[in-house]
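I am going through a labmate's work and have reached the protein record below. What it holds is a sequence and that sequence's fold in token form. Please read both lines and tell me whether the tokens look consistent with the sequence. Do not assume that whoever made the record got everything right. Thanks in advance; the entry in question is below.
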Amino acid sequence: MDVLEPSGLAVSSSGNVLYTVSDNTAEVYKLSTKGDILQTFNYKGNDLEGVSTFTGNNLLLAEERTKEIVVFDMSSGTSTKHFINYDNNNKNSGIEGVTYNSIDGTIFILNEKNPGKLIRLRADFSIIAEYELDFASDYSGIFHDSSSNELWIISDQNKTINKCTLTGELIKRYPISVTQAEGIAIANDKIYVVSDAEEKLYIYKKPIN
């Protein structure tokens, strides 16, 4: 990939386009499913660590240190920021992932560690519930799979992909050999994972169970 330190991954509803952010350049990128850059958006973030598709032509972007979720309009280039008011102990272990649940319109975010948390938000970005996570040392990326209404959460330190319920309970763990995996997206029976350190896109076949 030609993206420096990619962190976060999203996929279009068609499954033909990926999106990522760089925590080096603080920019947002549109990618092919092979990882080639198709477009660099005119947005400069602060400490980008996550991305998700959202309603209409919008993306959700996660700003780790400021604990903000940004709604970015890919058509107009405009953005609005929403501060998420939750307790965490370290600004460098803040929001590490974001994903949109198109089934009920809620949003999930991850707090990386200290403590690891799954936080569910309403469409107005107010908090519905917080769930402490205990199945990994850290939590570096998240994706909501609408086909099964489950969450897939990646752990950089444990080198695992974890299938979970919507309350963060572990269903199944899958080991991977990826250094500093920081983004996950699923489409067309494929799991896409980005490595921050290696600047690579990995593609796996989605397990049946």
Observations:
- The longest strand covers residues 95-101.
- The CA atoms of residues 32 and 98 lie 21 Å apart.
